[in-house]
Fold:
Amino acid sequence: MSIALPPGFAQWLSLREPADVAARSTDLVDAVRATLTGDGPYVVHDFGAGTGSLGRWLAPLLPGPQHWVLHDRDPDLLARACADMPDTAADGSAVTVRSEAGDLTRLTADDLAGTALVTASALLDMLTAEEVDRVVAACVGAGTRTLFLISVTGGVRLTPSDPLDDEVAEAFNAHQRRAVAGRHLLGPDAAEACTAAFARHGVPVRVQPSPWRLGPEHADLAEQWFTGWLDAAREQRPELTDRTTEYERRRREEARTGRLGVQVDHVDLLALCH
Structure:
């Protein structure tokens, strides 16, 4: 899998980090922690680690000692992620880290042997059905716990509402399902596809909602999210461009001044394959 990262991607990841932290399901983390009853060290593979947001949040919530393996296709992001990982687990034990650059969807059960947990945040929608099947097969084959967080479902609610909201949302979701270099992305269908893939292996999945709820304190994120959301919708349906000029001006002003409420629906998934 090779996709060019957009300019400013690292900055976008940093901007969204607090919203991701607020949205992720701590109930599912509690369920994982309850199954970690050995002495460790616990090996954790973080798929699509980006700047390391998930590791910074999750490592201090789990017992240790822990050894994290961060996967991403961008070596610069991985270097930043490794540098910013916490040093200690919930019980004060050491947390160590290394990185692996490359195509995480090509990892096999043998590559994940001895892994306590595979985790990822905001990744599944960027994969194809075939890639999700391979990732799930590797996790099931390795018998590892699997925690996939912040997977978009396509649901968006803006407050106050506007007649154009639903039309833009529909075009955006179609854009998320687009083909990129011959790869047909799952977009908002990814969580259901992942759950179905685990079911084919006889592994049940716990699902918890994890929506972003952006208010006045998230004005910068709300404006950048809205801009990217509308740009993608226009790319998918260019005829929207002229019709949404005033809509864009009004919505961005509402976002900048903290008057735009945004809910972006996600779900978190937990499969206990061990």
